[in-house]
Write a sequence for this structure.
């Protein structure tokens, strides 16, 4: 048994805010304080140190076809950031790797762990691509993984919706999709819009009928939110709303929240959806209106998708949006493609510049959203890696949130008109360590239904991070002193000391398997693979590289 | 005036990444602790080489039996002489100075080079002066002189600068070139100038050209004399004698502003 003595704990799931307490770890779990008869094999004195659960990133593009396209498109990203292999002796072997915005799988895992992250969720896995996504995630060491299955522009679903199918049938299809693709949640990207793009539509408003199926994005969101709720998934429908990046899209975003009709809904990278059309340049911040709407509606949660300045690459399932963005590609090369006529993907390299008015205002809008949403349980820290910035910039972002002087100093460096347009300087809020622990640990765990992660209570998986309490929060969060994964010490002083392999999390919803009959016919008639080929068995996930499958049961609600 | 000398220690085998080993970095007091790569793993320079200190602007590397990648990568000034063969990426992204390779060079030598002189006494591999994988432009300035032959894809996507080759080039010489000059005394294999946009291929022997090259007769081009005079000072015999040349324009599939020149008969 390991004793972590005298650490200052921030464990919001149990309301613990900076309490000095001992933690006991045994067989990979946090356990209650044992009696005097139990032998303590090892002990660490953490006096003055900050102790949190392992961080959880609930929206990071780390696997699936689009990351491979991004890697293939940007060899310069790899040339510029090479990491040699290193032999850790008893700790195993660290593979060589490379990449800044689209790092290789191994490097992704090592870098996440070295920042104190112990679980990462890939938000855009197309069921037809699931096997590849799992193989790729299986290659990512150190962290637990999971993926959200992408629906909403697939032909089978749009046909069901257009035919006015029974919500129970739709729920069965959604349940089957989750099960077949070993997913953790459902994501919808530009609802119906990816499909409409292929019918030569270049923008699809929330209440605009799809040119072929006749259904609207609002109906798509409503039907999927209902199915996700009825299946009893912990994580709400994960929505990448329509009109990403378009000035004036804040109205769409507010209407999208309403489209859930009171059911839980998660709006992702909301920074890209909080734009107005005020001012000479017809581009302004609507962060206040969006944040107020989130504050008012308890069924809504969001992650920010903060942008940070520098070179990155945007990778998205939103072919319509990425086709629109391609003219901003830097360097000037891009890919937009269809996948199985069911979805798509677009990869556009981007360089965000602080002296560019639009980029500077995007930066300020993201920070405004962080500071204006009052409940840290409903706003998550993301950069939509790599779309807003690579995940390695999280420590910098945390410092921007926790340190007002630092934030204002950075504000002085951006495009002066953007700084003048933004109300960021007037926002005095500074995040506390407790709030950071909420938004990076407790809240994502709760949102995803990870009962054993994101907290330090007895029974929790011993994913524990120990930080030196440094006034420079960027240095503090960039280099944890210790990271434990399932009770094993994996990182010491911000460097991996032991290579481990994380588990895969997937939901196991109940649904009527009778859906396979029409699906089988559908696959035989229209698809390039058989239905049986799409399905990924439980043991196959481990063959893909995950250390184990962690199933999450769901309790079905009747609608 | 003596050169700084690096000599490979006995018993070292494998691939050594010499990126970062430049004349100016080796005069630092802690030069021996400079991190280089051996088979993809970081090691200190002193573990692989013995270092004899000398001038800041001149470095001689003596190494045999290992593959030396990235020799002179991103070099900006001074003189680096390699006694032996180079691996891949010799002189990659060079910005100045002189890199001399007494033996052969591998693939991707002088790719993304911007300025300076790269001299190869032996032969060079594929993708000499070409674009690095995924990049839109190759060599963008400077001079490369190869005494022997070169492999395929010489000057692929090259943008500016001069490449002199006394031997023969492989396939697709000058493919997708944007601009610049290739002078190859021994001629080249098929697909010469494939996708050529601008730039000049000055070949000692007429190549097999595709249908998208248009023969434009014989022209008297005084600049060929100037080129030869300039080139002979670096590598004699790379540019053919005389100013009269048979000229083809192409690649017409790409706008056709490039040219292929060979000596006019008689």
């Amino acid at each position: 048994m390991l004793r972590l003595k005298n650490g200052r704990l921030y464990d919001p799931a149990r309301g613990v805010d900076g309490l000095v307490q001992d933690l006991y770890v045994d067989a990979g779990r946090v356990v209650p304080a044992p009696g005097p008869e139990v032998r303590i094999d090892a002990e660490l004195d953490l006096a003055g140190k900050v102790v949190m659960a392992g961080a959880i990133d609930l929206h990071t593009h780390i696997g699936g076809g689009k990351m491979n396209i991004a890697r293939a498109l940007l060899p310069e990203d790899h040339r510029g950031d090479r990491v040699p292999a290193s032999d850790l002796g008893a700790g195993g072997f660290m593979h060589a790797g490379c990449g800044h915005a689209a790092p290789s799988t191994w490097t992704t895992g090592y870098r996440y762990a070295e920042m104190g992250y112990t679980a990462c969720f890939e938000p855009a896995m197309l069921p037809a691509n699931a096997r590849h996504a799992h193989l790729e995630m299986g290659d990512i060491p150190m962290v637990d993984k999971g993926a959200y299955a992408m629906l909403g522009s697939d032909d089978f679903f749009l046909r069901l919706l257009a035919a006015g199918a029974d919500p129970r049938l739709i729920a069965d299809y959604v349940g089957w999709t989750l099960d077949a693709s070993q997913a953790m949640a459902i994501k919808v990207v530009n609802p119906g819009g990816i499909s409409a793009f292929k019918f030569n539509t270049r923008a699809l408003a929330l209440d605009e009928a799809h040119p072929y199926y006749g259904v609207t994005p609002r109906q798509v969101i409503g039907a999927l939110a209902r199915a996700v709720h009825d299946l009893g998934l912990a994580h709400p429908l994960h929505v990448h709303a329509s009109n990403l990046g378009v000035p004036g899209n804040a109205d769409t975003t507010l209407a999208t929240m309403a489209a859930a009709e009171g059911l839980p809904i998660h709006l992702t990278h909301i920074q890209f959806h909080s734009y107005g059309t005020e001012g000479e340049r017809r581009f302004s911040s609507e962060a206040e209106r969006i944040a107020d709407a989130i504050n008012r509606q308890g069924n809504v949660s969001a992650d920010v998708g903060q942008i940070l300045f520098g070179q990155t690459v945007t990778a998205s399932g939103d072919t319509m949006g990425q086709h629109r963005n391609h003219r901003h590609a830097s360097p000037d090369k891009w890919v937009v493609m269809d996948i199985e006529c069911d979805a798509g993907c677009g990869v556009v390299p981007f360089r965000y510049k602080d002296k560019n008015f639009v980029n500077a205002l995007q930066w300020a809008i993201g920070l405004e959203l962080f500071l204006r949403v009052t409940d840290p349980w409903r706003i998550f820290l993301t950069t939509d890696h790599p779309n807003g910035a690579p995940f390695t910039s999280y420590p910098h972002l945390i410092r921007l949130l926790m340190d007002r002087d630092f934030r204002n100093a950075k504000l002085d460096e951006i495009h002066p008109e953007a700084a003048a347009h933004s109300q960021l300087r007037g926002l005095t809020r500074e995040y506390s360590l407790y709030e950071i622990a909420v938004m990076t640990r407790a809240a994502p765990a709760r949102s995803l239904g990870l009962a054993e992660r994101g907290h330090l209570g007895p029974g929790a998986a011993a994913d524990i991070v120990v930080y030196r309490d440094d006034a420079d929060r960027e240095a503090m969060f960039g280099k944890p002193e210790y990271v434990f994964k399932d009770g094993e010490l994996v990182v010491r002083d911000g460097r991996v000391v032991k290579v481990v392999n994380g588990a895969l999390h997937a939901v196991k919803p109940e649904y009527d398997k009778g859906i396979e009959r029409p699906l089988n016919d559908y696959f035989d008639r229209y698809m390039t693979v058989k239905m049986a080929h799409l399905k990924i068995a439980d043991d196959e996930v481990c063959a893909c590289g995950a250390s184990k499958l962690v199933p999450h049961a769901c309790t079905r609600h009747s609608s | 005036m003596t050169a700084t000398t690096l000599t490979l220690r006995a018993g070292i085998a494998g691939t050594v990444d010499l990126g970062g080993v430049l004349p100016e970095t080796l005069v630092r007091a802690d030069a021996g602790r400079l991190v280089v790569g051996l088979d993809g793993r970081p090691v200190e320079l002193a573990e692989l080489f013995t270092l004899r200190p000398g001038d800041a602007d001149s470095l001689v590397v003596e190494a045999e039996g290992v593959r030396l990648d990235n020799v002179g990568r991103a070099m900006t000034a001074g003189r680096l002489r390699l006694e032996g063969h180079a691996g891949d990426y010799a002189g990659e992204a060079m910005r100045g100075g002189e890199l001399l390779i007494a033996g052969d060079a591998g693939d991707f030598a002088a790719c993304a080079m911007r300025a300076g002189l790269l001299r190869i006494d032996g032969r060079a591999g594929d993708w000499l002066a070409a674009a690095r994988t995924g990049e839109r432009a190759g060599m963008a300035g400077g001079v490369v002189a190869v005494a022997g032959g070169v492999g395929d894809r010489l000057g692929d996507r090259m943008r500016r600068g001069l490449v002199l080759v006394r031997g023969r080039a492989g396939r697709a010489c000058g493919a997708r070139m944007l601009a610049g000059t290739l002078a190859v005394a021994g001629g080249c294999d098929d697909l010469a100038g494939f996708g050529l946009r601008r730039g000049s291929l000055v070949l000692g022997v007429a190549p097999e050209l595709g249908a998208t090259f248009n023969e434009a007769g014989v022209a008297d081009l005084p600049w060929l004399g100037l080129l030869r005079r300039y080139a002979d000072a670096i590598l004699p015999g790379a540019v053919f004698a005389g100013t009269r040349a048979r000229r083809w324009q192409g690649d017409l599939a790409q706008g056709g502003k490039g040219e292929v020149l060979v000596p006019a008969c008689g």
Observations:
- The two ends of chain B are 50 Å apart (CA to CA).
- The interface with chain A takes residues 37, 40-42, 132-136 of chain B (CB under 8 Å).
